[in-house]
Design brief:
The protein is an alpha+beta fold. The chain contains one helix and eleven strands. The strands form three sheets. Strands 5-11-10-7-8 form a five-stranded mixed β-sheet, with no helix packed on it. The protein has a four-stranded mixed β-sheet with strand order 4-3-6-9, with no helix packed on it. It has a two-stranded antiparallel ribbon with strand order 1-2. Strand 3 and strand 4 form a beta hairpin. The radius of gyration is 21 Å and the shape is globular.
């Protein structure tokens, strides 16, 4: 291999590496992800401790458990993904979780009294209702 061929190959490998590195950096984690409509959505929290007795909705076996939860207005509700399937917590049409992996916990606060519909963007059969009084 001549010096010129080596230099060209080296340059191509270097450029490919830089492009790949940039692509991988773009795929890295961040605090926001976009659901496709330009609205930033926070990603699921990685380390959250759920207080004993706190309102909790578990995502397990492709279902929200429980499917109905009643809390006080202003209460904090925890959502846990207990399975390997990816899930979201979408409340009244707004994704509040980003994509959740197994073990992720998302915290949501009932802003006022009312009934809130909870769904998963990936699994339309997953439905729950939170009633805040």
């Amino acid at each position: 291999m001549t010096a010129t061929r080596f230099s060209r190959r080296f340059a191509l490998v270097l450029v490919a590496g830089l492009l790949t590195g940039g692509a991988l950096a773009a795929c890295g984690s961040s605090d926001d992800s976009s659901p496709g409509n330009g609205t930033p959505v926070p990603t699921a929290a990685k380390v959250v401790t759920v207080p004993a007795g706190a309102p909790l909705i578990d995502q397990d076996n492709l279902a929200f458990k429980p499917e109905k939860l009643t809390v006080k207005a202003g209460a904090t509700v925890y959502f846990l993904n207990s399975e390997t399937s990816l899930h979201t917590v979408t409340i009244d049409g707004k994704n509040v979780s980003g994509t959740m992996k197994k073990g992720d916990v998302v915290v949501w606060t009932a802003p006022n009294a009312g009934t809130f519909k909870v769904t998963c963007d990936f699994h339309p059969q997953m439905k729950a209702t939170i009633t805040a009084e």
